[in-house]
Amino acid sequence: MPSSWSGPVQTLNHFIATLPLLVWRAGRDGAWLWASPQWERFTGQSEADYVGDGWLDVIHPDDREAAQSTWSLASDRQSFEVEFRIRKADEGRYYWHQTRAGPVYDDDGSIIEWLGTSTDIDDLKRLRDQERSLLGELQHRVRNTLGVVRALSRRTADHCDSIEEFVLKFDGRINTFARTQSLSTRSATGQVNLADLVRDELFSHHLYADDQVSAEGPDIMLGVKAANMLGLAIHELASHAVTFGNPGDPPPRLQVRWGIDDSTPRPLLTLVWKEEGRNLADPEEALGALARDFVERALHYEMDAETAIEVLPAGLMFDVRLPLARAQDRDS
């Protein structure tokens, strides 16, 4: 090497050594000739290890075929780009890299070697995977949401005698569904705390915790489907409590209790709604005014729940028991 080149070469080597990239040179056939210090530090390979095809030893086994096949087409390209995983020596873990290479030509225009870089894109790759996962979850939720809205619309219309009645009842049920979705999106797991669900529904009907209203139970996280079903049931019970009866009647005393019954082979989620102080002179009329599709039947058919409802002159009693695993299932 002419002495006049030593300065520029040293400067170039120093520049390459500061790049946040793995830099390398290869012959026209893909056999490696040289790699930068970054490659040696990252992979733990020495020059004797990586020359020729030795660099493939630190490529993930599932990616080696793709890495090798790239070189079989390289002679027909002006440059190429490929992604594969490279093992980091001090961790033993593979990191995704994007490898780009371009040819070096002689005076006749023939390729004499390749210069390439491998850039760490592991974080970007993971973000892309998360983005795809989140998009899939969003699409799933949108489909489920539309399905719930359609079902609410049909089931509400089946039991309404006028447009005005439909609008009033459908609006209340959609608002309940929206509150449940809001609770779900605030949770890192997408689940809903049953305590929050109960209290939100009571508050929405102006049934506040005081001497008249009591809501107690442990924190139990529900899957979205169970939360929707229970939320609608509680909405119907609360709506019935504040709207059915004689004008001027005092508000009922209300107790809502929930918990886990682990005395059975399958632990059960239990919830009891108990009213007192109402004046239900005609229990059959009171029962007929309750939207039992949402209080009993939906829970039974959708969540494999056991339900019992009793109408006494003093008020309603409702008991639901459903498999805890089913209630907490995040995928249902």
Layout of secondary structure:
Blueprint: H1 6-18, E1 22-27, E2 32-35, H2 37-43, H3 47-50, H4 64-74, E3 80-88, E4 93-105, E5 111-120, H5 122-157, H6 163-185, E6 192-193, H7 194-204, E7 213-216, E8 221-222, H8 224-243, E9 253-261, E10 268-276, H9 283-288, H10 292-303, E11 306-312, E12 315-323, H11 324-328
Parallel strand pairs: 7-9
Antiparallel strand pairs: 1-2, 1-5, 3-4, 4-5, 6-8, 9-10, 10-12, 11-12
EC number: 2.7.13.3
Protein name: histidine kinase
Catalytic activity: ATP + protein L-histidine = ADP + protein N-phospho-L-histidine
How would you describe the overall organization of this protein?
With 332 residues, the chain is an alpha+beta fold. The protein contains 11 helices and 12 strands. A hairpin with a 4-residue loop joins strand 3 (80-88) and strand 4 (93-105). Helices cover 45% and strands 25% of the residues. The termini are far apart. It has a 5-stranded antiparallel β-sheet, sandwiched between helices. Strands 7-9-10-12-11 form a 5-stranded mixed β-sheet. Helix 8 packs antiparallel against helix 10. The relative contact order is 0.07. The chain has 2 domains: 3-120, 2-Layer Sandwich (Beta-Lactamase), CATH 3.30.450.20; 125-328, Heat Shock Protein 90, CATH 3.30.565.10. It catalyses: ATP + protein L-histidine = ADP + protein N-phospho-L-histidine. Its EC number is 2.7.13.3.
